Amino acid sequence: MFKLQKILLTLLMLALASPLSAATVDVKTLKTLSLTAAPRDVAATADGKRIYVLSQGGSVQIYSVSGQLIGDFPVGADVTGITPQGPDLLILEKPGRQELTLVSLEMSEEIDISNSPSLGPADAPVSIVVFDDFECPYCAKAVPLLKQVQQAYPQQSKLVFKNFPLKMHRNAEAAAIAGLAADRQGKFWPYHDLLFEHFNRLNPQKISELAKQAGLDVNQFEKDRKDPALMRQVQADISQGRSIGVRGTPTLFINGRRVQQRSFDEMSRMIEEELKALK
User: Fold this and answer.
1) Which pTM does this prediction carry?
2) Residue 22 belongs to some domain of the structure
3) Which residues on adjacent β-strands are paired with residue 118?
4) Which of 105, 133, 166 is a domain's end point?
């Protein structure tokens, strides 16, 4: 009874209150998508990066926010509604059968690796891409695993390094630039290993000391570190990582598919799937 009285009192106060003036709404058309079929339902992820369109024919098209068709898959004509749950899950509504189906979406991202340091054959069909931070303890711990996986498929895979220095690590950006300077002398991986061996002791002096230890021409190394092109390359890696959902390190992809479980067995399974698909 008390709750009912409270609701009635609230309604009465709203009725007696002065009417609110209507706000002016400016509407701008940002993008018009050309669909392949008439839509039955449309939904977007919470971050707005993906748009799902359920067609009348029973398929779902996935678009980027820029309007690019990322992919599509059949769901059946009995599906009448779709609801995203996070970035990789989608609820399919089937009211005629009093049923909901939860599906997992494994997206394959386009990652530009053309200028990135890599370990393994340049033409290897499988790319293991890692977004890394030289001061990240989890990244340092993952180094042996990544090399183990690449060495298990020495001709079919290559390990590709992308910089993703986190702001919380004050020497990570300098180390990232230093790594690219070492790459210009063909010694990225020896220097990479030394940086990770000392991940919790990095500072400007240590970064220079490790260059000498890696056998680099230190004078050339110091000159290259000052080249603005290397900073631009690091920033490009960060921008690309963010665009495909990288938020922390290490984040791994195998031929564009995100690795959810960092283990030898899981990564081997994904590589085998990629190799099988190529046959």
Assistant:
1) 0.77
2) no
3) 160
4) 105
